[in-house]
């Protein structure tokens, strides 16, 4: 190995040893892709979008109308009868789950020392992610705001009892 700019031989010739303090920096080629870079960028972008989604959700649910005391089955039924709010809540669910799963994946990679432990923890994490995303998506899109046989006082105003 020779120095990149001065043509002088570097002190370290074997893996695991250090180059001389004044030797020029030579970037080593890695075989890994840019997954971690894209993951880092995603975390920043999804964090910003999540702030907008969550504060929009809180504003509509807590500030508009009668506030928190109005949140009941009819309120949710009224919201989820609109495709706009279904997509809003779906985006919030998916982004929050992907954002959180990616963060926990990073923590597992940083702190789980054994490969087996890391694999088991990440497997459980991905299983929990899949269950929550699938069930949450099903709930959002199969929610029936006007169930048959329900108490008319609990239903949204647009339901015919």
TrEMBL record:
Pfam families: Sdh_cyt. InterPro entries: SQR/QFR_C/D (IPR034804), SuccDH_FuR_B_TM-su (IPR000701). The chain crosses the membrane at residues 37-64, 84-104, 124-143. One of its GO terms (molecular function) is metal ion binding. One of its GO terms (cellular component) is membrane. Keywords: Heme, Iron, Membrane, Metal-binding, Transmembrane, Transmembrane helix. Its main location: membrane. It is found in: Membrane. This is Succinate dehydrogenase subunit D. The lineage of its organism: Bacteria, Bacillati, Actinomycetota, Actinomycetes, Micrococcales.
